[in-house]
Each structure stands twice: as C-alpha cells, then as structure tokens.
Amino acid sequence: MARLCNRLRELRARYDLTQEQLAQAVGVTRQTILAIEKGNYSPSVSLALRIAQVLRVPVEEAFWLEDEGEQGGA
Amino acid sequence: MRRELYGYYITRGLLILAWLGLMILLKARWEIVLFGVLFMIVLYLWLPHSGRYVIRTDKPLSPLASDERERMISLQAAAYAFAILIILLAAVVIWSGLRGQGMISLELVSTIMAIGLITQFTVSLWLHRKT
After folding, report:
1. Residue A73 falls within a domain, yes or no?
2. Of A26, A62, B80, B131, which one's alpha carbon is 20 to 30 angstroms from that of B70?
3. What is the ipTM for the molecules in this complex?
4. Which residues are CB-contacts of A29 (< 8 A; sequence separation ≥ 6)?
5. In this structure, what CATH number is given to the domain that contains residue A47?
6. Residue A25 and residue A53: Cα distance in Å, rounded?
7. Candidate from A30, A43, A47 with C-beta closest to B51
8. What is the model's pTM?
9. Structural domain includes residue A8
10. What sign does the dihedral B126-B128-B130-B131 (CA atoms) show?
C-alpha cells in the first residue's frame, strides 16, 4: 500500500509562506494545510494542483507516492 | 473584529433578535431565553475563528464556507450517525415485533434521534483530531 508524501513545509519555507497564507491562497483552512503536511489528509487532485501552482512547482515535486516503510523523497 | 466579517455579525445579530422575539411571543422561560441568546452569541463569535471555515469575501452576508476536508468530515460523521440510527431503529422495530407491540413510543424514537446526533458530533470531533 502506497502512502501520499509531500514537501509542503520545505516549499512554503522557500517562499516564506505561513500555513495561513498558503491556505488563503488555495482557498482552504489552515487546519487542512496542517493535516496535509502531517500526512493525515490526502488532498483532492484539484487542491494538490492549486497548491503546486501557488508554490510554483510541478505537482509531482510537491506530492509523491511512497511504499509503506520506504524512506526518502521522490 | 475583521472588516470582512461585519456583514456576518450583522446578519447573525438579526437572527438572534428574531429568535429572541419568537421566544418572547411564545412566552418561554427567561432562563431558557437567556441561555439560548448567550449560546448563539458565543457560537457565532467562535465559528469564524474555529478554523473550520474558509472566509469568502465575495459573500459578505454568509462568508463562512467549508473546505473539502471539512466536507469530508461532515459526510463521514453523517454516514456513521445514519448507520447507528438505522441499526437502532431496526433493533427497536424487531424487539417491539417480538414482544407483540404494534406501536413504538415517541420517547424511544426521540432517544434514538438524540443518540444519532451525539454520534454525529462525536465522530466529527474524532475525525477533526485524526485527520
């Protein structure tokens, strides 16, 4: 079973964005951004694309699938 | 107070006044009226800051909107509550049938409805913590 991983925290830091600012930019609550960053919530395709657009990266750079137990990035 | 929420506070204030007027017309007990008014004031002040809603500036009178995670939580909580409600109602109907009772008391149905509401609230809280 693969799980959805992300590097939102790192990408936010690149643009000095807070969770609140990113949330406002993509039209969700700060709790949703927090839940995505912690890996507790998998965003819809539409939200993932909006986040990638705001962070100016391809969506696969912000989100990727990882096999359970595997460590590391994309 | 945030400027974009002025419309929200005004409409909610009017709702509270309407409820207050209705309660006065119905000659409700003053303790219930006071509790209701205080509850609504606290609720309406808290909701925009609860983190559960996105504030939409294009809808000044109803600026609070759920995002996709909040909608997912609400749907799941409603599904759990509905399942509990159906199971309990089925159990009561079968139990009444076995006992040869043709009618189910209104109190029992009210209790089942209350259990459904409590389930919805509890599951919603649990999902907010979990996701």
Report:
1. no
2. A62
3. 0.82
4. A23, B51, B52, B53, B54, B67, B69, B70
5. 1.10.260.40
6. 10
7. A30
8. 0.77
9. yes
10. positive
- Number of compact structural domains in chain A: 1
**What's the pLDDT score for residue A67?**
86
Q: Does A45 touch chain B (CB under 8 A)?
A: no
pLDDT band at A60 (very low <50, low <70, confident <90, very high): very high
Q: Could you report the per-residue pLDDT of A18-47, keeping only the tens digit for each?
A: 999 999 999 999 999 999 999 999 999 999
Encoded tokens for B40: 């609504």
Q: What residues have CB less than 8 Å from B37, skipping those under 6 apart?
A: B16, B19, B20
How distant is the Cα of A13 from the closest Cα of chain B, in angstroms? 22
Query: Given this model, what pLDDT does residue B101 score?
Result: 82
- Domain assignment present for residue A20? The answer is yes
Instruction: Record the tokens describing residue A29, joined without a space.
Output: 């609550």
Residue A69 lies in a domain: no
A3 secondary structure, DSSP code:
E
Structure tokens, B54:
């996105």
Nearest CA in chain B to A38: B131
Give the domain extent around A50: 2-62
